[in-house]
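Batch manifest, entry 17 of 40.
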Amino acid sequence: YVAGGYWEGAPILVSLAGATIEEHLFYDPQTMPMGKTQNVALTSDGQVMVDSLTGGNIGYFDGNSWVEAYYWNEGSLTGSDVGYQMSDLVSFGDAFFAVGSVIASPPAVFFPSEKVGATYHFEVVEITNDTRYGALEALVVLGEDHLIAAGADNSYHDTTLWNCTSSCRDSSSWHEQSFAFEAGKYTAIHFADDGLHGIAVGELDPQAAGGFVILTSDGGNSWTHVAAQFPGLTAAWAFDDGAYAVASGGGYFAIERP
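Output type: structure tokens
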């Protein structure tokens, strides 16, 4: 699946199967008011979710039909509507998880709601009460209770990386990890299928300073900084054979093989 689009009547979600391109969603200011979509995730049982870059909207496919929702927190089930903005959206098994980027608010991780009647709804968990850390940009789910979220400190433009390995709906279970290159922000995290080898990348502050890469081989409990020069990075991949790849704007791509 590929998300994008921007004008009325244009597709905002398409799927690719070999040489076949199928259009699924179209921007409409009344029925599907997402001018530009950002992230798309698919579950093991055929659900699809896409979020909006231009607002807090999501589009949700339950296997039969699409719906659009602006208030997707579980409070909307009882009339307690609150709008949130997703920064990253992923799936694990048959459920969706996400992180948010909310200025002057604590960082939030969005878990699949366990309330009766929930479909696309999320439980909002603020992983700290410190409002400085509100900009989470990347999320990886290694298990229902093993999540890693990363982003930046809104006040000091410092990197912030959070790890949780148990009871992750309890904010006290989240622990921040820090490194020497504090100035900047994380933009992407990716793990190999073994759940142990992972990579996180980002941009330094100021942007002219380039980017950074850190690696883990123990599921994110500890990380090693790669001492090399990179441009500001926006994407990363870890592979089962021990290889890593990073990418950025302007056509930059680099790979390290074992």
